[in-house]
Amino acid sequence: MILVVGAHGMLGTDLLALLGDRAIGVDVAEIDITSPESVLNFVGTLKPKVVINCAAYTDVDGCEGNIETAMSVNGEGVGYLAMACRDIGALLVQISTDYVFDGGKGSPYSEDDAPCPLSVYGESKLAGEMNASFCPEHLIIRAQWLYGLHGKNFVETMLKLGTEKSELTVVDDQIGSPTWTVDLARAIIALIDNGCRGTYHAANAEYCSWNGFAKAIFEEAGLEVVVKPMTTTALNRPARRPHCSTLDCTKLAGDTGFIAQPWRSALRDYLKLRPVHTP
Ligand SMILES: NC(=O)c1ccc[n+]([C@@H]2O[C@H](COP(=O)([O-])OP(=O)(O)OC[C@H]3O[C@@H](n4cnc5c(N)ncnc54)[C@H](OP(=O)(O)O)[C@@H]3O)[C@@H](O)[C@H]2O)c1
User: Of 145, 181, 261, which is closest to residue 13 (Cα–Cα)?
Assistant: First the structure.
């Protein structure tokens, strides 16, 4: 049996739906990963074969002012899960992020590239990766730019703004691969089912800037919005973000045969499934 932790979040909800009766899902009410007792009791009693940790403190800018919470949830909490999984011989699957990289490489990052986070969030997620690796059976999956039906995300923010404004300014100097949580969930399941271990990168194929992504969202949704460029420096957010942190996913494809679709067709699939909200 598979235990999905952080199951009420954006990725956790889609993952649980795809896993069906292979998995059960819990969130902070059942397991608070910052509490070693909570984690060891729950995991030790249930004895799952696999624990997938989707729980995290994901507010990238919020992490800058809440270092203790970020390290506690994203770093130490993963360590407690690793201990619990080690004790029962389970596989720990830890979801991580492109923000462990500084974005200066100039080409897609492979699993062997040295991390160098720019933000507290990235530091805390890197601590989580290190802690996950204390479990002998571990799988670390780095993803990026997630959106899905069950959480706050860039697509929903743009669609809301697009009904309110005819012109927007969006950063055009951060490059990545927007990734639909359903496609990431498929990649995670492929890695588990193929017995993979170690670190993998998983994202939708091809890449764009946030500005290009916003334009595509409006085109696909049939909204007429002018999207102007701006720089990350001008946006002046609390957390620094990588300039270009695209992920090389060839190891995932080679070891599982799973190739995620291009981000634009994933966006189309998402928009088809998304409930239409009438004002
Ligand atoms: N979102 C992205 O763009 C992105 C990109 C790359 C990687 N990732 C990684 O992908 C994973 C899933 O992200 P997501 O966007 O689906 O996250 P999310 O929607 O924020 O969901 C995280 C879930 O974890 C729960 N949680 C928070 N603290 C917890 C604790 N102490 N114990 C147990 N559960 C706790 C949250 O509950 P509350 O809502 O009640 O706090 C929430 O249900 C995370 O590891 C994230 O770092 C995300």
Answer: 181
| Residue 222 · residue 152 · CB < 8 Å | no
Percent share of the chain, pLDDT over 90:
98
Amino acid at 243: H
Start-to-end C-alpha separation, the chain: 42
Residue 277 has pLDDT above 70, yes or no: no
CATH 3.30.1780.10 fits 2-153+178-205+246-261, yes or no: no
Where along the chain do its domains lie? 2-153+178-205+246-261
Residue 100 DSSP class = G
Reported as type and span, the H/E element at residue 74 is none
Beta bridge partners of 140: 94, 199
**Do the Cβ atoms of 33 and 39 come closer than 8 Å?**
yes
Residue 56 Cβ contacting ligand 1 at under 6 Å:
yes
Whether 200 is catalytic is no
Query: pTM (2 decimals)?
Result: 0.97
45 CA to centre of ligand 1 in angstroms: 24
